[in-house]
Amino acid sequence: MKTMARLACFLGAFTWVFIGCGSLDKKEKSADPDEGLIFSQPVTAASGGTLSTASGGAALQVPAGALAQDTTLTVEVVMADADTASSVYNYGPDGTTFLKAVTLTLRYGGDAPSDKTPVLGTYTGGKWVEVTGSSFSGGVVSGPITHFSKFSIILVGKDIIAVSGCSDVASKFKACGGSVGGSYQITDVCFSDTVLGQNPLAASCPTASLDVEITWDGTVVFTASTVTMNITSQTNTITINVPNTCLTDFGKTCAEVGTSIDMTSCTNSGSVCSCTQTQTGTNPEAPTPMPYQVAGSNLVLGDGTLPYCVAGNKLTLEMSDTDTGTLQKLYLVLTKK
Which residues pair with residue 275 across a beta bridge? Predict the structure, then answer.
């Protein structure tokens, strides 16, 4: 089971993220006077080039060797949407990828609240997310990109928000019942985005990020009257991404940052220092079968009742989280063997 998460700071826990919440006030937005216009620029693979809007609101710097072939690049400037703090920039040709990172810079002329920071955002998975390595300085945001998409400025706040890579499972779940007999592999644990607290390092490096990938190995076996859950191991791969602008502020090299936070390996892409550590734990306890009953679309285990749904070879269980008092619902996704 893999759960992806993001954290805009250094926190030693999984599934954290810092994101902006809710629609933005008009004074927080920055409109480009070139809205409604399309700009183009031929760029050679050998020497690179720059595509800018007439107002200078957006500039894409393409280094030599970033394109596989000579290409005429385009950008369409459109109005901001409810979740962006600037106009939206649609770059083309659609599907363009780069052999090495290019730098996108957007000018921000809005009034950011004291508890938020402007960063470069890209539209992916049906929502705006921060571009890793984004930074804000001198009224502009910039960040490295490797492919074309929609880009804009978004505001990230001080909230720590727990997210999962399958939050859509949580939002769309409906108990439907079905036959649960058989052996299943654990493939995912899903939940809705949940505010957990505030970013303690928002002032020192608000555009730093942390990725955590959690892999569970385990099975769930249903007989006619018992269920046995056997989680054999959990592996956490933690990657901290620190923009080089923060390294300068910290007065540390990439390797020194890794040593200070006990990370095992660090690499610098030229714009971002990424430090990684992998932790694996095993479960020494033998699994214990538990009696269960089916009551409509619910599984009854002891004093607990779990709504569930079987769809094809997938079984999804809704589980209440009473330990943390924060993540109220977890959704365990199982795939039949």
Answer: 240, 266
